[in-house]
Amino acid sequence: MLGRSFYWDKTKKNEEENFSLEIGTNLTENLKNVKKMLEDPSDLVIREFNIGTANHRTAIVYIDGIVDSVYIHDHIMEDLKTASKLPDDKQKLFDVIRKEVITVTGIEMGHSLDDVSNAILSGNTVFYLDGVDQVLIMDTIGGESRAINEPQSESLIRGSKEGFVENIRTNTMLIRRYIADSNLRFSTYKVGRRSKKDLVVAYVDGIVNPDMIDEVKRRLETIDIDDAPESGYIEQWIEDSFLSPFPQILNTERPDKASEAMLQGKVVILLDRTPFVLIAPATFGSSLHSPEDYYWRWSLGTLIRMLRYLAAFISVFLPALYIALVSYHPGLIPSDLAFSIAASRDEVPFPPFVEALIMTITMELLREAGLRLPTAIGQTIGIVGGLVIGEAAVSAGIVSPVMVIVVALNAIASFALPSYSIAISFRILQFGLMGAAAVFGLYGIILSYIMINIHIVNLMSFGVPYSTPFAPSFLSDWKDLVLRAPIAMVKKRPVYMQPDDKKFMDKGDRKQ
Amino acid sequence: MNKLYLILVCCLCLLLAGCWDEVNIEERGFVIGIAIDMAEKQSGGNPEITLTDQFVVPAGLGTPSEGGGHQSSQKPYTNLSLSGNSLFEISREMALIQGNAPFYEHLKLIVVSEELAREPNIFANSMDILLRDPEMRRETKVVISDQKAKDILEIKSPIESLPAMHVETVNENREKSGALIQPLRIGNLNQYMLEKNNYLIPRVVSVDGKMMLKGAGVFDGDTNQLVDVIGETDIVAINLITGDFKGGFIKFESNDGLMIYEIKRAKSNIKIDTDEKDNINIIIEIDTEGNIAETFGDRSLLNKEYLDKLDEEISQNVERKTVNIIKKAQEEVGLDFFGFSEIMQERHYKEWEKIKDNWDKGEKIFQHATIDVKVNSNVRTSGTTDQTKD
Amino acid sequence: MKRFKYADERISERDIMIAIPSIVIGVGILSMPKQLASVTIGADGWIPLLIVGLFAVFMSWAIAKFASGFEGQTFLTYASKIVTKPVAIVLSFMFAILSVFITAYQIRKISNISQQYLFDRTPIEVIALAFLLVVVYAVSGSRAGLFRINMMFMPIIILIALTLVIFNLGWISIGNLMPVFQTPFTGYVQVVKNTGAISYLGFGILWFYLSLVDKPKKAPRAAALGMCVPVGLYMIIFIMSIGVFGNAVTANLLYPTIELAKVVEIPGGFFERFESVFFVIWIMAIFITATMAMDIGVIALNSIFKNTEKLKIIFILTPLIYLAGMIPQDVVEVDFLGAVMSWMIIILNITVLILLTVVAKIRGVKRNE
Q1: Which residue, of B282, B319, C139, C280, has the greatest Cβ tally within 10 A?
Q2: pLDDT in tens, C215-243
Q3: How many residue pairs bridge chain B and chain C with CB atoms within 8 Å of each other?
Q4: Which ipTM value was assigned to this complex?
Q5: Residue C145 Cα, gap to closest chain A Cα (Å)
Q6: Is the Cβ of A171 closer than 8 Å to some Cβ of chain C?
Q7: CA torsion, points A497, A500, A503, A505, in degrees to nearest 10?
Q8: Domain boundaries, chain A
Q9: Which residues belong to any copy of the Spore germination GerAC-like C-terminal domain (chain B) (predicted)?
Q10: C126 and B18 in contact by Cβ < 8 A?
């Protein structure tokens, strides 16, 4: 039940090293075997002691640092030391210890060296009793972990300040606190041939479409990889099209966003050691939503949403439009503006495409540089880059002031998007569009736009078309798409998810 | 997968070969206004035309980054004149001289000299390229000028940095003056030329080195030739007759001195009785509403009888003015430039089909038509005060 | 891979309702007012437009009604049952050829207009190639994807058309619309002969797409409703352009609908020239027309050559379409191609409808109920 066994060829190693994979009755032999298997690492703790009147030899084995040592002391050592009236028969003693003495809540029996090593490597403590060929595996997972903080990548003005952390138990706990439903399901998987990380698929049974769950599980079971250090690995393994620039699975650090998605009939995938959980499936519409849309009153929510669609448009099209208008269709620009752009470009030696390329690449560099540096310096870089380079580039005649505005607006718009992964997709598309605009002007832009649309309608995320609910269209889902209708009016869960339980609420009427 | 590569390869080919039409904005010669004159030297054969393009010099306009009040020493425009038979040919020649090829998408104004407009056919011919070329827009305004059109483009405007923009700015004052006719868009000119209706084109004159819109030229829709020029007082009357009145005033002498009646609203209703082919009866009813804007008299205006009397005086005044211009049209000009022909074509199509060749040509039915004007003017208020002196 | 039921390759009657205006509204509308105005007086052109439109609505209904009787069967299957296999193959083949020509015509036309309004020196061949490649990209995707594209583009197209209408309202002079009912009867005949057909071609898609519809019983009504959209739109655009330009100018402008956009002045001066924006967005309308036409060609050929891969057919068709589009030398030849083609399409559709209905009656071919 603890997943796959070790990958390397144990029998071979076994022959060379000459140790048994079985747990024998001899404690010394057993402990030697454990040491041999793990090559006696420095953090391996083996504590031997005698208990009972008959001075039975026992030992507990764990790896320091990933266990809760206070807990071990309080609930294992203390209990064993202070236990009285222990039977003399070894097998009986073992049962009494298991059933009566030890007060650790999670306790299981182990029968092989594999069980032992898997257990201690994931933070459990193993109890040996001399003369018994079984061990007790006690859940003492602990050690240092980050406290629950405000999510860095998705901070909101209004809304919970809790974010997911690296510890998967904490994360499942957070979700439980949001959805105290008896139908909340956590299916656990082990991922990684070597890393053996816990992966939890969370969903609400009775809401989610069973086909969706089957599909998610089927794909997760195909994962065969040494290690999945972050949920990005999972995302890339199970997504539909690796050629698409669009994220087909969303990620979030926010438990409220994750639980909201589950109530819409989506599936949430948590991976140990990363605060980023995955939400599947994703649609184009949902990647532009933010939980805060729902927290403010509907009018504001709707306006913010529309603003975000505008931001999406700007972040994809603005530099391309600039290139097309300036080098192909100056007739489209209002006369006065056209003259002032012409004047400001008088000393710029590059065509608009090159100009735009220089500036957007600079922008990307600044963004990247700002990320790498500590927060304090990062801000400085932003200011230095934005103001100084922009100003200097204009006065040096490398770019025109209008170009600086265009690029700045473009960057701001892309930061305004709620999901970093969709913002990245738009940044990639933006370069393609710039190229198209440089070759064909507006004609190129519209052809690219059409191509993007063709791609989107053909793209699927776990069997859900990416373009839904625009097309295939579900009019009742449009209440919560570009608009955000008043809460009481959105009675149905998204139809495009084909949920088992169709409605959020029975009556839309508010209680007076 | 294969199809993807194919598309990628094709796109790359396009990138390598593309950019036929790429012209950077600073390399375009923005033409904001053009002037068309007869050339000084005529060499027989096809008449020679002088085309003057007003190119914008963006640097001369001063960029915002150089500070708001900064006036560049450079002139914001250059005018370039060349002569030739074809406007297209001239325009291409200009590219060789100017360096930046002329770009007409921002063209705002076309000035045609009266000298050229009076010649047969040349006016219509020179408008051809301005309508045919896809770079041209249908919004460009057309005016005529009493002198050399190219000189008009040299007149500095006190508020606009580009002379060609001046006409646009002045036209915004139509509501105040009434002596401006509706600016003629080249799209409408196209309509008149195709429908063979007579039309008016606003006229630009230079007074003391300043550009001014004054009066209009009457064009014969058949030959597209300038026939006559009418003054600004007549324009008020024409606007009242056609009902295209955006605001203006009537100056009249009442018993108590000079008074100004500002017309706020005017409406006209034209009825045409086409029963008798030889004696067409046209009844024009004009209703105006307005207020006394200025008076040199000292009588109280808030007097029902006095106001009625003023109404009467104003009506007569307006009637006189309109009858005058109609008489002028019938007797002096001999052309119907009020659009009666269009009304007949629209409402009395069958009768119109019979007389259309003899309206203001041939038998000249228009000249013998009976045209009655009924004016009903109303003074609504006297402004903020009754009397300013006693 | 598992899909949700709605995401499979089936389509709903709503998709049919949108597909009809999607294929009908294309390049025709750009020059339609000119062709009508040149043979009618005043704004009388709306009458033939309406009459032919109603005929098109009836045709769409009739074809959909007939085809819906054979649920889930492709055109070739039920036509073979009725008029024997060889005849059915010939008919399918004719549809395929005509579809290729529609695509070619649309592509050629768009390249001509683009060159006029957006480019200057860029060769037509390149403009057309770029467009064709995008069309091919769309056709090689899923068929349901095409319907989704329609669904996404149609609102934008209707919206831009309405914008055009609303911003032109101020320029309308009622006088231009007069006189009414003065066109002699021969004028109307002329209209039908010249133009009536071009504007409404496209209901032929119903022969092929109805086999994909989930509930074909509802399809006839949806198809007829869908056809009403272009009828309404055409009449509005026609009356607008007569109202704004007058009959004489409309008759002389090559693309009155685009010129209408030239008149528009967006308040606030955001765009100086609306016609480029309008035309660029209209490219989407032309794109879906071309795409669906090509897809019909692919379906028709695919039903004949069952064992050939769809992609292979597309790769064979693409150069053919390109060549067909590049054959006409000038504007007049392109329009001639359009006229000939649309008449052939009308005749083919009517013939097929009558032939199949009558033969089915005579031979007593059962529809699956």
Answers
A1: C139
A2: 888 888 999 999 999 989 988 998 888 88
A3: 70
A4: 0.92
A5: 5
A6: no
A7: -130
A8: 10-138, 168-282, 296-465
A9: 214-383
A10: yes
